[in-house]
Amino acid sequence: MFAEIITIGDEILIGQIVDTNSAFISKELNKIGVSVYQITSVQDNREHILQALEEARARAQVVIMTGGLGPTKDDITKHTLCEFFNDTLVEDAGVLAHVEELFEKYISSTPISDMNRMQALVPSKATVLHNALGTAPGMWFKEEGVAFVSLPGVPYEMENLIVNQVIPKIIEDFERPYILHKTIVTYGLGESAIAERLEQWEDQLPPFIKLAYLPNLGKVRLRLSAKGPDRQALVDAVEAESQKLPALIGDIMYGTEDEQTLEELVAKTLTEKGLTLATAESFTGGKIAGQLTALPGASAYFKGSVVSYATETKINVLKVPKDVVGRYSVVSAEVAEAMAKNVRSLLKTDYAIATTGNAGPTKGDSDAEVGTVFLAIATPTGVHAQKFNMGNHRNRIVEKAVNKALELLQKEISKI
């Protein structure tokens, strides 16, 4: 079963706002076995809206529109829907009472106007969906087996209508298959290298299970998607295929997306083993510490961080020897190791992570090429650093380095 989403509004097309509504709707539909076939954004323009509706009806059983339901002249969705369904607007007494109540209770400083009361005008063929959080009602049409749903574009109003009214109505009106996803998270190997390892396994997947590779900043998510009429059969099949993966990529697997993130896995391992951690961050600017301390209970294992962005801070606070910086440069394995070793000693922890590198756009205090990164881990038995080249895009260099540092740390603390 397929759905289409049509977002209406010039503000989306000129980049004034980001369309988060479609992502929310897609996720909620997917949960009940409805696949989104296409997402279309159109102007507040009668011809464009009519064309989008006509094309969508040929491809989908559910068409969900958002936007264009305000009280001003530029919001033309209701009038266009009347033209599409050969209908007329009528006043809905329930909607009018709700609008008047909202103004009386929450907008008493602004008198209700005739324009506000016009929100109660709806196409006569529509089933009104009560918008408890706003003045523009949702509307449901059913014609020739296709459901057309019109919703306000305000995200929190739309979300409430989707969850409490639209989804239950789709479940009631349509027979749907089951859709199941399982996402395995990997770190440390690129998409093509993983694909080579999994080629034979992927070729032998049942036809109702599809594999998608989702690479992003040092990690690759592997999403298994299954679709069919029997939910338990899908669960069993996906689980059986998942059980084959550790033998193929067990060294880079870090659980599933539903279970925990890499930083959550690090936090869990440190907590369970009673270990403590400190960080000394240069170009990553405290992002490793930030991700760890964003988790509840971080105080059980995380003791603190020194964000030694400037070279003098590395020397004066972390006591990195000035001659080491002079001999090897601030972006070097030797400096990374000194940072990790000294912050571990300073904060009296079992482990420490240090980052130093050149994220660009200029070379700064080192001649190292942009993208050159050194990550060091200090342990109870020693310290070691590794060199990486993270590309040439500043934000990506930082994010990839954070992920790689957490990956290296998890491998290290898992040895105990």
TrEMBL record:
Pfam families: CinA (PF02464), CinA_KH (PF18146), MoCF_biosynth (PF00994). SMART domains: MoCF_biosynth (SM00852). Residues 4-173 form the MoaB/Mog domain. InterPro entries: CinA, CinA-like_C, CinA_C, CinA_KH, Competence-induced_CinA, MoaB/Mog-like_dom_sf, MoaB/Mog_dom. Belongs to the CinA family. This is CinA-like protein. It comes from Zobellia uliginosa.
